[in-house]
Amino acid sequence: MSTAAEPAAPVVRFVEVPVIGSDSVQWVDVTVPSSAEDSGEPCAPTTENAAGYAVVGDLPVYLVWRIHKDSPNFLELLELCGSNEFPKCGLRLMFQNALCPFAFICGNKIQGSAGGAYVYVLTVSGFAYLFRLRNLGAYVSGSVFPENDLMVVDLRAQNSQDVKTTRISALPGLLVLGRSDGSVGCFEFGTPVPGSQSSTYELRDVGLSRIWGLVSRTNVSSSVWSLALSEVHGRKLVYVLHADGSMRVWDLNGRLKIFSHNLGLPEIAGYHPIRFWVSDANNDDGEMFIATLYGSESGQEVVVVHGLHISLANKLSLALTSSIRHVVLDKGRLIDLRISCNKLWILKKDGMVFNFFHVELDTGSTYLYSLQEAFVADQLFQVSADSIDDLMYTSCSISSSMKDSSAQVMSSCLLHRLLQPGVYQHAALVASIQNHKHRLTNSVTPVPSDALRKEILSLIEGEGDAANPFSIACSWKRFCSNYFQCWCQNCIPYGLLIDNSTGAVGLIRKNSLSLFRCLEDIEILAYGSFGAFSDFVDIGVNLSDDVLDCEILFKVLKFASYISQHLGEAAAPVLYESLVNPLSISFDDAMSCILKILERGYDLSTTEHYISVFGVDSIWEKKQAQHTKQRKFSINSLLSLTALYNKAGSWTRVLNVVENYVKRLICRKGDVRLAVDAKGLSNVNTSLLAVSVSHFARVMFESACGLLVFLGHICNVQGQVQMSFDDSSKIKLDLIPLIQNILLRWFIVHMLASRPSESVALEDFSYQLSSLHIDNKNDRRLRHDRLGAHNFTVCCILLLEYPSHAEEHSHLTSRSFIGPLTFTRLLQNFVSWVLSGRARDESSFSVSHVIHLAVILIVHNQYEAAESLIVTIDASHKKLISQDIQNGDVEWSVCLYLLGFCLLVRAHCSRIQLLKDQKVHEAVHCFFRAAAVEGAYQAFQRLSFPPNLQCPGASSAVAWKLNYYQWVMQFFEQYNLNEAACQFALAALEQVDEVVQLENQLHSGALPESAATIRGRLWANIFKFNLDLSHYSDAYSAIISNPDEESKHICLRRFIIVLCEHGAFELLCDGELPFVGLMEKVEQELVWKAECSDIMGKPNIYKLLYAIQMHRHNWRRAASFMYRYAVRLKKEKTSKDNSHLSLTLEERLHSLAAAVNALHLVHPAYSWIDSYQESHMPHDQHSPNKKARKSVNEDDVDWQFQQQKSYINIDELENEYVITSAEYLLALANVKITPAGSHSDLDSLLNLLIQTGLYDTAFTVILKFWKGSEMKRQLERVFAEISQCCCSNRSGIHLNSLLLTLSEEGPDNHGALEKGMVPHHTTVHSNWRTLELYLEKYKQLHPRLPVTVAETLLHADPQIELPLWLIHMFKDERKVTSWGMTGSESDPATLFRLFVDYGRYKEAANLLVEYLESFASGRMANILNRKKMSSVWFPYTAIERLWCELQDLKNSGHMVDQCDKLQKLIHGALLGHLKQVKLDSEDACNNGMVKEQGDKVL
Q1: CA-based nearest residue to 1382, from 1448, 1432, 1332
Q2: Is 496 helix (H, G, I), strand (E, B) or coil?
Q3: What distance in Å separates the CA atoms of residue 699 and residue 705, rounded to the nearest whole number?
Q4: Cα–Cα distance measured from residue 1143 to residue 1097, given in angstroms and rounded to the nearest whole number
Q5: pLDDT digits (tens, 9 = 90+) for 1228-1238
Q6: Total-model pTM
Q7: Pairwise CA distance, residues 792 & 690, whole Å
């Protein structure tokens, strides 16, 4: 076949740029109400992957639609424009039946309609759906599409069952169907509202035939294979391609066929037309184009373009011209085709590879479009199977440790590439991770970069041996391959997006959207693959007017490409990584190692890790292959360089050509026209520009790397290629530094364009302030919610501050997408601004512009990016760290200042303490170095900073340095980095002395305030920093060093408060801090704090004062503070409930005990305290400035201090202690009490103690406050109460157990009785036991107590059976003696009288008889004693009363027998007793007479 002339080798001129955010759309699912009949047999084309777009509205809006083969029931719709950000949500319509691969979208051009856009779709069952779309953001997920905005038309009624719809096309208000019977059905619609009508008609080409003499009409058309619509001069034309190759054109206005032609071409015999596309008509010249796809049985396809002339002389007529252009598609399947008046765009698929190109219709030139698949494959080392292995070998050769560094370098390199814009896709990453049987933490929303890195690294290291770089390489190879497959599956190209109004070319993919930009000249060379010099010349890049120079450059680039292929594309990634992590790999080491690899090959001497993964045979084969590859490279390298030298004639000319080419690697200077105030742009156009910057910088970086390796290699082999010393010196001294500088510049651009932005910390004040939107400038407001998103890079932030001129601004804010050429111009201007600002000098970085960029990043909280920018520039200048800054480089002091600020903020945000300390140390170093630069004062005065970075000015350099140190000190103070802040405060102190010295020399005032005031403020800051760090000794030193007395006292007060709050009491008590001359002030501050704070607060300042005075052996003052504490507790206890009251009383009890103990250490003559002075503060003392939690009123004086004397001795304190202990025990028993201040109150207190059962405390109160008879009376009262308790609990209890047992427990065990309620039986036993114990304890103090007890018991119950232990107390626990019934106040006679008084006659008689009989039957010693004069006594009067009582009972007739028996018993006992007494009396008299006579004889 004959074709028009075409270029021999198509050149890549365009590259795909993905739209940021288009791969992470969240869909709003809306259900479409369907007809019940829409479920029949398919009668229309089945579902295929399809996509399209429409530009609708007066303000252009792109509406993109997609239909997926794997989701045939869904129609996805996206609404976007270039001046807005990419929408986060899209509309997804869910149908009941599958859809045909067709959708049509138009604006409101239908007559009678208003507003919105209209969508036509067709289901495979033959139902057409017409939608009127509102704002896509107004739909709610899970809802049903409004029926008022929907029309459903059944198109099956026009077809018979065996006729199928083969093709579909549409215009606004018109839907046209091509059918298998050759007919064309036309359906005209109104607006999709209820009641709307549609009209239907059919286009069919018929002829006449004669059968059996009859004439009839027959269908002469075959099945419709293609269908197209256009509007020409207001007429709607339908272009129909039939299966027989004939094309017919119908005018719908008259429903007439106006053109018919067979598209079969004799020059391409064996090919038949399959489908065609029609361009828009040019109404001016009446020309339009038709592109027809021809296919053959072998599967090869050809696109033929014809011209179609339109004439309107008398009527509308068409004329088909001869073929203009033939485009052979080779072996591939056409995906989409678009044609305009001068271009033909073709997207095809060849196996698994997609190709996109366009053909210029007038010249026939073909230009390729580089798709994103190629970029992703290149970045993930998927072009060659050994690419990752080469990267691993290179990393191992560079790294000193085979175990750690090499694997780390390789993983870091691959992570950077995987997560950069254009490669990273969240859906593909999730699918890849899940394929590796690993679960991502968050598989729905994108994960922050740092977390994503950790997830991927944990997956890679978990699959193999983390210490084995070969194992890690295998894991990465599997992961990258899997990710690339998932990416390709998620990004299948569906269709083209061509905007003829702007020239924008785009690609609609399965899950994303992208546009194309033109390539720069250098990019064309990088993307091109030139087999011969003629191809190199034909690309049209004007590199040199000299053909020989072009040929030399061709050979240089070809050899550089050969070196890159030999290294497996590993050189550029490793060099890039050395710039990213200079601490892990230095750039010089990486470059040196790469050159050694070129010279000697990979070092495989260490094979143990490789063998553990691949085996011995594999490593042997690998060594042989590497050896063969290296030998081949060495030979080819030498031959190529020799040929290059011979071609050029000298290396000098080669180097000149290289130098000229290297200069082209510097970005072309952008437009330097005056910029307009058009900042704050963030939309689809700017996001495309940001991604383009990343791609462009990567290509330029890799191109520079290739040249750098080339030059380094020829230097290493200079002796073999006849290179002179001068040429070698030029390479080393001129070219290599130049390329390194260019390399660094493109690295910075790529770093800024690919680094994800940092999210703002929640505690960041500037972020919180900006979130209030006080300025209300929506066009300039940075959306902080986008910060931290993976697709929002640092470059997007720079674009917010990009000072574009008017033309740039109009393009960036255009609602339409940017055309490829405009795209490239914008890219050039922006990259030029990033590299050198608006200055005309582009030879190197401008320090002032670096500062400008860093300030922009800092303002937007991108501290890590700003740090990387400055550190990288520093590495290029080799001045900031390696050697001292020269005096002329004063602007670098500002860079150091900004670098220090970035390090400071990053240290504050770091959670790793070691990293935080390192960053703080580096920040301190940078700030000090910035101030040390001579002339830094002028640099800071010249440059402008944001308010949070603007250092205060000064009249001299010395004064400025003082302000600078104070300013930096505030930075560290703001971020709570007190140790570093203290360093700058000390530096400022030293600077004050220099300023004062300068003032004295110049006799001028350089300081706005006195030096003493500044020193005082600085020492106060030093004190604060050390106090916050808990460096108490240094804080104390700052206090005593402070020359400002007022500041010193304020610091001292704060020092005391903090020590108290932190519990560091020992520093105040142990004398470690001497407080020389400050002790009085310390005590005063503590007293004020004690008086003004909550009495129950922690820590207790009164106790601290007590401890301090005790440590200083000031016993009386210690007792005074504790007594004051007790007084305040007593005053405030009335407002407390019982639970708090008990705690208050307990504290008061302890304080009184401490006061008493302290006074015991004093001589008794001085054991007193001044109650009034210690209770109130002196009138001449002033309150601290800090507002107290509780005010002190000096008129509010406790009543005790108004009525009692001004001093209190130790006895009074002990008395108060006793009362407080009683009140405390009552509070524990939940008994409401009133303060005891008089004897009447003491009586009430005693009553409460007795009623509560606190007998021990009651006895203590009695013994403390009563003496003599009053004390005995109170004791009798208590025992009477105890006895009453025994009587009240007597019912139902057998007393035998009480009478027969005498407690053997000690008296201390009665305390358990005061601990609460016990069971009734136990209570009875406890009462009797308590009575016994207390009576035994106190009867020696008051012998009559048993009488009181017995009398109380008998009075309460005359019939009570007295306990044996009580009776024994009357009997004195011994046998009756010669004295009869006599004894103490509690003697048997008293017991006898009690029996008689309370009618206990039987017990009285028995007691009497017992003692009378015992008296008569005594021992010999007792008999001698009783015979003495007046030695025997019995209660005869009581006996007489008993006799009379018994007689009265007998006379009254009561108990006659019992009384008679008792009388007889008493009568007999008395007769015997009286006889015995008479006999004893006579013996006593006789004895007395004998004794008298004996005395006379003597």
Answers
A1: 1432
A2: strand
A3: 10
A4: 12
A5: 888 877 665 55
A6: 0.75
A7: 9
